[in-house]
């Protein structure tokens, strides 16, 4: 769970360091701006909170490696794909989006620390241990950290440091 906490903290810190004007730049996620990606991270944080308090009695059906399934880039045809940019725009400026990510993201981070890694949880019609679920999110956070900084002129990779 240490890797989950480290990757989640680094990603949230990077978002906090993104200048307001860069929220309207493209992200590394095809079709999404930085603000859309940050909105997706809020949804991910909510998913972490929900999943960690959704116990499952049956045997695991996936693990940290098999949890994710490859999908194509967002086309806007899937209702969730279309929702994210509209929801991100509804936040207005970056300050409320940053606040919500910090608020919900902080709670998700605390829940992860408190979770029993052996406990079975259910999400997306699958069952896995909380430890495997959080390990799967290390991949998610790492990829989205790269997506966040893909087209930014500043170095958001290392909080507090800017490119010369």
UniProtKB/TrEMBL annotation:
One GO MF term attached to the UniProt entry: isomerase activity
Annotated ranges, domain Mycothiol-dependent maleylpyruvate isomerase metal-binding: 6-148
Keywords noted in UniProt: Isomerase, Pyruvate
Keyword Manganese listed: no
InterPro entries: DinB/YfiT-like (IPR034660), MDMPI_metal-binding (IPR024344)
Pfam family, one: MDMPI_N
Xref: Gene3D superfamilies: dinb family like domain (1.20.120.450)
UniProt entry tagged with the keyword rRNA processing: no
Protein name, as recorded: Maleylpyruvate isomerase family protein
Organism annotation: Streptomyces apricus
Lineage, uppermost ranks: Bacteria, Bacillati, Actinomycetota, Actinomycetes, Kitasatosporales
């Amino acid at each position: 769970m240490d890797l989950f906490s480290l990757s989640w903290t680094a990603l949230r810190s990077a978002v906090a360091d993104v200048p307001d004007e860069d929220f309207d730049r493209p992200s590394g996620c095809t079709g999404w701006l930085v603000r859309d990606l940050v909105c997706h991270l809020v949804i991910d944080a909510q998913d972490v909170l929900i999943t960690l308090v959704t116990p499952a009695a049956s045997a695991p059906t996936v693990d940290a490696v098999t949890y994710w399934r490859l999908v194509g880039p967002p086309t806007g045809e899937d209702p969730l794909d279309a929702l994210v940019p509209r929801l991100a725009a509804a936040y207005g400026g970056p300050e409320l989006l940053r606040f919500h990510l910090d608020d919900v993201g902080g709670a998700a981070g605390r829940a992860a620390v408190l979770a029993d890694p052996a406990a079975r949880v259910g999400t997306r019609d699958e069952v896995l241990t909380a430890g495997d679920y959080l390990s799967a999110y290390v991949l998610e956070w790492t990829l989205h950290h790269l997506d966040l900084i893909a087209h930014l002129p500043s170095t958001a990779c290392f909080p507090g440091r800017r490119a010369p």
